[in-house]
Amino acid sequence: MTAIIDYGVGNLFSLQCSFRAVGAEAEVTGDPEKIRAADRIILPGVGAFGDAVEKLRERGLDRVVIDEAGRGKPLLGICLGMQLLFDRSFEYGEHTGLGLIPGEVRPIPDGQKIPHIGWNALLFNKKSPLFKYIKDGDHTYFVHSYYAHCPDSYVSAYTEYGTRLTASVESGNVYGCQFHPEKSGDVGLNILRAFCEV
Amino acid sequence: MITKRIIPCLDVRNGRVVKGVNFTGIADVADPVELADLYSKSGADELVFYDITASFEERAIFTDILKKTAERVFIPLTVGGGINTLEDFARVLACGADKVSVNSGAIKDPSLVRRAAKRYGDQCVVLSVDAKRVEGEFRVFAKGGREDTGIEAVGWIKRLTGEGAGEVVLNSIDTDGVKRGFDLEMLLAVSEAVNVPVIASGGAGCAADFTELFTALPRVDAGLAAGIFHFGEVTIPELKRELKRNGVNVRC
Q1: How many C-beta atoms surround the C-beta of residue B1 within 10 A?
Q2: What is the spatial distance between Cα A121 and Cα A134, in angstroms, rounded to a whole number?
Q3: What's the CA gap between B111 and B120, in Å, rounded?
Q4: For the stretch B82-118, what's the b/e string if a residue is b when 16 or more beta carbons lie within 10 angstroms of its beta carbon?
Q5: Active-site residue A196, yes or no?
Q6: B5-245 under CATH 3.40.50.1370, yes or no
Q7: pLDDT per residue over A172-196, tens digit each?
Q8: Of residues B67, B71, B74, nearest to A189 (C-beta)
Q9: CA distances from residue B114 to A8, A33, B194 in whole angstroms, order as listed
Q10: Residue of B1, B45, B70 lying closest to A14 (CB–CB)
């Protein structure tokens, strides 16, 4: 069973439906016991970093995510959920993240429209089990104003938006994607399917 | 590089997709869930659902359709029509909408944009504007394009994108339904004035109109249309092939 963590940010209806579409069992839950019992974890998120990390901590779920990731359980952060995996963010002040992947979250550099909204191409940077069913250059759907700045060795794919932005990251059993796989058509569903097989 | 988006728009009334035909009446087109699924499979980049229902009962049918669509269709869904309060945002977001489009609701109470952006993020709030030329300026019209508000459109759009609208749908009443191409002059004025994505609406009659739109106005991000897709005058795979042939970056 995949636990989709519910911590009061955003609507998880589409995400849950997308797992059903790939034939995987997923439950939306904020219960630490259920999250600890799950085979894999999805950390979703929309909105502001500071607010989201606060809500995770209030519920004690930051600890649960860090512990479970430490035990080797596959974890996938999506959009803001990916940004939360890093050390810190500079969205409206400075906020401490979960520190599961080294790096920080910064505003997308000037010169492009903000937010970065739309379908953009994935440029593979290293081999990833999540890319098992998709190919270099496939498009996914992005909606964000901040991006993760981290060492190249953690980046599994970039996307081009004026500059190279981190599209997905990977560190052992911890995965993250800036784009929304649940809104990226068949390509996105294939990424979720691959995550369910790691 | 980010691609230009093609967005079919589905007007939903009493559980069906409908389309106004030459001001004489409304044609019943299709089942919304089936049509949304078909568009998604044929390469639509996003879908817009407009709730044009009149009654409370019909509103429940609309949200049910939205849910059924979100269960099957995994591309972004924008919902508009009758969005006047934060509760309206909550209602459609809970049924699977990703973005919410405000039009008359923002004219009645412009603070709605700021309040919604604060709660749900800029990316969730789409400002939809029906505009028309009046006395040498572009004017914002309300009530489905029937009432001149006296508000100048470019200034209005600049103001509300400044307050948190993360995207703009600009529908030109002057070109809407005419099928001779998008309103390039109006779209140029708006796309030069703001730094958020701009979606062009009103006037598309054939694939070449989209090619003209994206080649003439590089700051326009997406093209929206309804009837030409519903009635099969233009199919999305054909349109995308045509755009690609003309050097427009699209997702194929």
Answers
A1: 9
A2: 12
A3: 14
A4: bbeeeebbebbbebbbbbbbbbbbbbeeeebbbbbbe
A5: no
A6: no
A7: 999 999 999 999 999 999 999 999 9
A8: B74
A9: 21, 38, 16
A10: B70
Mean pLDDT, rounded, of chain B: 93
Pick the CATH number of A2-94+102-197 from 3.40.50.880, 3.40.220.10, 2.120.10.30, 1.10.3720.10: 3.40.50.880
Distance in Å, alpha carbon of A70 to nearest chain B alpha carbon: 32
- ipTM of the complex model: 0.93
In angstroms, the Cα distances linking A196 to A3, A177, B74 are 11, 15, 18
Residue contact B2–A161, C-beta within 8 A: yes
3-state secondary structure B179-193: CCCCCHHHHHHHHHH
Dist. CA A18–CA A23, nearest whole Å: 9
Say if residue B22's pLDDT is above 70.
no
pTM of the entire predicted model? 0.95
Per the annotation, the verdict on A180 as an active-site residue is: yes
